[in-house]
Write a structure and sequence with these properties.
Elements lengths: L1 E3 L5 E6 L2 E7 L2 E2 L15 E2 L12 E4 L2 E4 L12 E5 L3 E8 L5 E2 L11 E2 L5 E9 L4 E9 L4 E2 L2 E2 L2 E3 L7 E3 L4 E3 H6 L5 E4 L3 E5 L6 E6 L3 E5 L5 E7 L16 E2 L3 E10 L1
Antiparallel strand pairs: 1-2, 2-3, 3-4, 5-15, 6-7, 8-9, 9-12, 10-11, 12-13, 13-25, 14-24, 16-23, 17-18, 17-20, 19-22, 20-21, 21-25, 22-23
Length: 261
């Protein structure tokens, strides 16, 4: 699926709900599948963020403990396309409470064969391309009170020189610093906007609504994941504490805007 901006300068490619390409003025901004670092270019983390192996892949809810692997079961479901125009499109995933979902990490990377959650939900992901930016909106329809964590996990292309900077209003972070964070990622908390500054190519600003935190992650010098999150999960405790979860309002909306400059 391809989106083209009104001025024809920006082109976005989406494959089964995954943002696989965002080009502006011919420059590719997204990490490409097959390149070192990560097998995807974007994904979502829901209804949890973070690892669960230390607690035998179990997550506590008001309805009991249920089996979840790292970053939740949403990524095991397939998107269905619901709408398409020249500059926008939408996809949904639906889950029925207590349904057992096969875990793609089993058995090589996980001992949990089946995953489940005691709440039904509909997860909608929408893209809107303008001349200036790409806006990605997430709508979560669920039972009121359902606990959840949400993270968006896009990967951006770097030039492999380790000279890029990630900047907020109060700090600058180098790529080597992020790499030292390892699998627990580098937290950037209590901010809704962050920027990737490059010496060559377009800078990228990311503005969010509803998240207010980021994680930064990369094991390589050619890509960087800049991940808006509702909460940073790597607290050193085996169980994900109740304080990390948001309670559903029935309909919750989150936004991420990617702005090249």
């Amino acid at each position: 699926m391809i989106l083209i901006s009104t001025d024809k300068i920006s082109i976005v490619k989406i494959e089964k709900g995954e943002l696989i390409s965002y080009q502006k003025n011919g420059e590719e901004l997204m990490h490409q599948k097959g390149n070192p670092g990560w097998r995807n270019s974007d994904t979502e983390m829901f209804p949890i963020i973070g690892p669960t192996e230390a607690n035998n892949f179990r997550v506590g809810t008001p309805k009991g403990n249920y089996s979840q692997d790292q970053h939740g079961l949403l990524r095991e479901l397939e998107y269905s396309a619901t709408s398409k125009t020249e500059k926008s499109c939408s996809f949904i995933k639906k889950y029925a409470a207590y349904s057992a979902i096969e875990n793609s990490k089993y058995p090589e990377k996980s001992s949990a064969r089946l995953l489940s959650w005691p709440y039904s939900f509909t997860f909608k992901k929408s893209f809107e391309l303008t001349n200036e930016s790409l806006k990605i909106t997430f709508e979560i329809i669920a039972e009121k009170g359902m606990p959840f964590m949400l993270g968006y996990h896009p990967a951006f292309m770097l030039n492999s020189n380790l000279d890029e900077l990630v900047k907020t209003e109060i700090k600058e972070i180098t790529i080597p610093e992020i790499m030292k964070g390892g699998d627990t990622a580098y937290p950037v908390l209590n901010t809704s906007e962050i920027s990737l500054l490059k010496k060559t190519g377009s800078n990228i600003s990311i503005r969010t609504k509803g998240f207010n935190n980021f994680m930064l992650w990369t094991p390589v010098d050619n890509m960087l994941c800049i991940e808006p999150i509702t909460a940073y999960p790597y607290t050193g405790k085996e169980m994900l504490s109740k304080e990390l979860f948001t309670n559903s309002n029935g309909l919750d909306i989150f936004e991420v805007e990617i702005i090249p400059s």
